[in-house]
Amino acid sequence: MALDVVIRPAVEDDLGDIAAIYNHEIANSTATFDLEPPTLDYWRQRLAGREQGDRLLVAVDTDEDVVGYAYSWSYRPRPGYRRTRETSIYVDPSMRGRGVGRVLYPALLEAMTLAGVHCAVALVALPNPGSVALHKACGFEHVGSMREVGHKFDHWVDVEWYQKILV
Q1: For residue 56, with 0-12 CB atoms within 10 Å meaning exposed, 13-18 middle and 19 or more buried, which class applies?
Q2: Measuring CA to CA, how many Å separate 125 from each of 74, 101, 106, 167?
Q3: Residue 27's CB: how many other CB atoms inside 10 A?
Q4: Residue 111's closest CA among 163, 73, 57?
Q5: Count of beta carbons in the 10 Å neighbourhood of residue 130
Q6: 70 lies in which domain range?
Q7: How many CB atoms lie within 10 A of CB 97?
Q8: Residue 61 carries which DSSP code?
Q9: Which of 21, 39, 123, 131 has fewest C-beta within 10 Å?
Q10: How far apart are CA 3 and CA 5, in angstroms?
């Protein structure tokens, strides 16, 4: 089970911790296909959101340190997709396997539901058994696979799509 964490909306002061978690993944994993850390303005945009279903939540420990975050963002720029959001979740490497994602992700999905989002979609780069297990535990279903669509660390990476109908 998760350590003592609180899930709450992110605030400006959290952005440095969020960026540090993400930058670790850029440098060390294929969980993201970014190759360079995004600017602080990128994270400010995620914090502000553009649409009603955009959310950025954090999991903080008893010291108020960010130990994970999850966000929803536009799936595609066309108006017909406005009630579909793509989700992302990242947990600090030192906190993985402790249940942080299992409390953080449902909180994001609930916030999205309350905002009227109809469908959540997520892309998982393979292999990533922890992320696959988390998505399935949170009610996502596997809806497709694509071979060799990502390239990082000098090799091709397969991805799987997951989706969850919310309302």
Answers
A1: buried
A2: 19, 17, 21, 26
A3: 11
A4: 57
A5: 14
A6: 6-122
A7: 9
A8: -
A9: 39
A10: 6
| pLDDT interval class at 3 (50, 70, 90) | confident
Angstrom distances, CA of residue 47 to CA of 18, 28, 76: 11, 25, 19
127-136 tens-digit pLDDT: 999 999 999 9
Q: Quick one: CA dihedral 127, 149, 68, 163, positive or negative?
A: negative
Given a contact cutoff of 8 angstroms between Cβ atoms, the answer to whether 73 and 111 are in contact is no
128 within some domain? no
Average pLDDT, the chain: 96
Q: Is residue 143 a part of any domain in this protein? A: no
pLDDT at 52: 86
CB 56 within 8 A of CB 49: yes
CATH of the domain at 117: 3.40.630.30
Type of residue found at 97: G
* Tens digits of residue pLDDT in 117-153: 999 999 999 999 999 999 999 999 999 999 999 999 9
Q: Report DSSP state, residue 12.
A: G
The conformation of residue 52, written as its DSSP 8-state character, comes to T
Domain count, the chain: 1
28 located within any domain: yes
- CA 152 – CA 150 distance, rounded (Å): 7
Cβ(15)–Cβ(71) below 8 Å: no
